[in-house]
Amino acid sequence: MPGILREWATDGMGDGAFMFGEYDPNISGENIVLAASPDDDYPPAAVLGKVTATGIFAPLDPAANDGTQNFAGLLYGRRPKSANAQKATGVVRKQGVNGHSLVYMKAVTAPQRTAIEAQMAAAGIIVRY
Q: How far apart are the C-alpha atoms of 23 and 117, rounded to whole Å?
């Protein structure tokens, strides 16, 4: 248990804490593969895109043209920095989330955020503030 408490102290949010309503991993969740991140941990609620050529999830980047410019999911729980791709759980459909808790790991403007939230809505992810 000390590890869980330490994670909460680090950023104030534990795995799945960004969601509201009932979470059914069989409906909302999906096993995903995250791109390598040798410099930073992936925090819970990281907003993700998916590389079209590989199917690997990575931080959503509005300036990209490899597929990661489009919303593909939210990271359910913290994943440590790693030089290699790693398995994780993504929230990809039919879930309510707290918009204040979403983590954009790349720079996103207000109009881009609005467009991303429209993509989330199309996937059944309801963002509330």
A: 19
Report pLDDT digits (tens) over 86-101. 999 999 999 999 999 9
Q: How far is CA 58 from the centre of its chain?
A: 9
Q: Model-level pTM?
A: 0.90
The first and second tokens of residue 81, run together, are: 């920095």
Q: pLDDT digits over 102-118, tens only? A: 999 999 999 999 999 99
Full DSSP string of 8-29 = HHHHS--TTTTEES---TTTTE
Residue with tokens 């929230």: 91
Compute the distance between CA of residue 16 and CA of residue 14 in angstroms, rounded to an integer: 6
> What pLDDT is stored for residue 3 in this prediction?
35
Backbone angles phi, psi at 60, to 5 degrees: -60, 130
